Amino acid sequence: MTAATGLLRRLPSVDEVLRTAAAEAAVAAHGRTATVAVVRATLDEIRTALRAGPGAGAPAWSAEAAAGPESAGPESIALAALARLAAAARPAVRPVLNLTGVVLHTNLGRAVLAEAAVAAAAAAMRGAIALEFDLTTGRRGERDDHVRGLLRELTGAEDATVVNNNAAAVLLVLNTVAKGRDAIVSRGELIEIGGAFRMPDIMARAGARLVEVGTTNRTHLRDYAEAIGPRTGLILKVHTSNYRIEGFTAAVPARELAPLARERGVPLVDDLGSGSLIDLARFGLAPEPTVAEAVAAGADLVTFSGDKLLGGPQAGLVVGRKELIARLNRNPLKRALRIDKIRLAALEATLALYRDPDRLAERLPTVRHLARSQSDILAQARRLAPAVAAAFGPAVAVEAVECASQIGSGALPTATVPSAGLAVRPQAVPRGARGGGRVLSDLAAALRALPVPVIGRVADGALVLDLRCLDDDAALVGALAALPTPGTTTEPAR
Ligand SMILES: *Cc1c(COP(=O)(O)O)cnc(C)c1O
């Protein structure tokens, strides 16, 4: 009899495993059905691994199981099952620490909401709300009415409407105003945003005919003037959110396009993308066009996102002329693109914060993060360095460093903001070395595998944890506490 067949015979039964304390804990946390299924699957895998013999691609824990009868006992099998249940029960959509230095990171959910917005969204989820109900008259109301007044007040526009996101806003505008007609756009503004949002494709889906004017680097007022004809539906200005054309360039600002559009009776639409509601210069950032400026410049409709610089939930906002907004609201597509009650509640609460710009940095995380000074962040990095170094253990060097953050989500694409963070280097990687990529990517993977994943960025031979968006020191120390104890090597949990 081989060692393996001996082990096979001694393998506990499902019932034996279920009688252990660990299995009882698993049943309490995850239910009997799931626990029994996982215990059975675990036992099956051990059996298969033992039959296949060593080195046959067995799962990591089964090597342990094969190591001796002790570790293949009922308690250790129950513990393995419990770990698997816990891993499977972890939500896929779960909080991470965004230490990438990109404040509005599209892949990490963009804007972090203000407490007021979180509370409003939670209240809207918990009970009935006056969503499309006019509390004064007791009659049916419009869901947009909740933010219409605020948006008018904050942008100076005649009217406003809200949809699912800015891509939806652009689609709705094009479909309403330019279906079966020409939409005139500069060749320098035919953008592609991440996630396959390409202006020419959106135009086609909206039923508008794209009429390109000018060249990639230079477009003049006369290019627009010559393109306007009886079939023109609108002129579209698009904020070149994620790139800059530099050198020998010319573009026509909305302010100069507006008189031409008005004279020829063609609506001018300005897709701002991020579209800030306040002048970011007051926080020391490079200027980004504000929505109020675009409205004042004479755009008939202005579209922008709710979860970029505005710092609210995902939403697409359209402000502008009353008659055009009314047409958008009558388009049946509006119903398909509408915003839900949870985000509408959060959006209203976010917009309300803009009534008091002096306290915005205190209350709105996006603005607070963008406004943080490098010295403040560097002090935080120095304060945190010892605890973070302790969590990593002696094989890893941790150093407070200066770095550069980005705004992200297509706001000020080429500008960076001076920031600071922690440079984490496995000792095997010398400073400034290029070759340590593998070690660094393993380290980055280990941080992503934590129960609260920590997302940094690899730069200059180090994993840099930019602390601009870290509100709470304890959150990072707590997340890193789950790192494998220094000295042991463990595969990152899957
Ligand atoms: C980001 C962006 C969009 C898309 O906005 P979403 O809110 O992501 O749908 C459209 N146009 C421009 C110019 C943008 O920057």
Automatic annotation (TrEMBL):
Homology family: Belongs to the SelA family.
Which named protein is this?
L-seryl-tRNA(Sec) selenium transferase
Per its UniProt entry, which superkingdom is the organism in? Answer: Bacteria
> Could you state one GO biological process linked to this protein?
conversion of seryl-tRNAsec to selenocys-tRNAsec
Record EC number: 2.9.1.1
InterPro entries assigned to the protein according to its UniProt record, in alphabetical order: PyrdxlP-dep_Trfase (IPR015424), PyrdxlP-dep_Trfase_major (IPR015421), SelA-like (IPR018319), SelA_trans (IPR004534), SelA_trans_N_dom (IPR025862)
Gene name of this polypeptide: selA
Supply the alphabetized keyword list: Cytoplasm, Protein biosynthesis, Pyridoxal phosphate, Selenium, Transferase
Q: Which residues in this protein are found as N6-(pyridoxal phosphate)lysine?
A: 308
Indicate yes or no for the key word Cytoplasm: yes
Q: Does the keyword Transferase apply?
A: yes
MF terms per GO, please?
L-seryl-tRNA(Sec) selenium transferase activity
Tell me its cofactors: pyridoxal 5'-phosphate
Q: Which Pfam families match?
A: Se-cys_synth_N, SelA
Catalytic activity, per the record?
A: L-seryl-tRNA(Sec) + selenophosphate + H(+) = L-selenocysteinyl-tRNA(Sec) + phosphate
Q: In which pathway does it act?
A: Aminoacyl-tRNA biosynthesis; selenocysteinyl-tRNA(Sec) biosynthesis; selenocysteinyl-tRNA(Sec) from L-seryl-tRNA(Sec) (bacterial route): step 1/1
Q: What is its main location?
A: cytoplasm
Q: What does this protein do?
A: Converts seryl-tRNA(Sec) to selenocysteinyl-tRNA(Sec) required for selenoprotein biosynthesis.
Question: What lineage, starting at the top, does this entry show?
Answer: Bacteria, Pseudomonadati, Pseudomonadota, Alphaproteobacteria, Hyphomicrobiales
Q: Where in the cell is it found?
A: Cytoplasm
